[in-house]
Amino acid sequence: MRRFKKFLRRRNQGFTLLELLIVLIIIGLLAALVGPKLINRVGESKQKTAKVQLEMLSTALDTLRLDTGRYPGEDLGLKGLIEAGDQKNWKGPYLRKKFVPKDPWGNDYVFKVNEESKEIEIICYGFDGAEGGTGDDADISNMD
To answer: 120-127, long-range: CB within 8 Å, 24+ apart, which pairs?
Structure first.
């Protein structure tokens, strides 16, 4: 009976340093294996978000064109979706929120008008915010 009481007292004292170190090592190994995969998912999700926003902006610009007969010029750009400027028959704002969203990396979308074909291109330059690149730095366009 005495041995059993000693065993119970020792058991209630807590964890040993060795047990705590083993648990910390296991947690560190799991974080080292899972962490990089989760970080890659963040980049992919931001690219998908940019594609969805580009489609939303393209649709809003098409609606604006149906109302006014033309896309806004490069001087007005995407602000033409929330401000009338000099556009006749403007029935906006064409975005639910009263501002043009930034891309998932916090940069402004680039608005270009092709003068020959009168098509518009909206570009997101990716993580680096500069033209060109691969992976998270790749450019995303509504023309892709």
So the answer is: 120/58, 120/61, 120/71, 122/54, 122/57, 122/58, 122/61, 122/78, 124/50, 124/53, 124/54, 126/47, 126/50, 127/43, 127/46
| pTM as predicted | 0.70
For residue 17, tell me if it sits in a domain.
no
Is residue 70 one of the residues assigned to a domain?
yes
What are the pLDDT digits (tens) for 23-51? 999 999 888 888 777 777 777 888 899 99
Which residues constitute the domain of residue 116?
Answer: 43-141
Closest listed residue to residue 110, CA positions, set 44, 46, 118, 102: 102
Residue pLDDT, tens place only, 3-16: 766 666 655 567 78
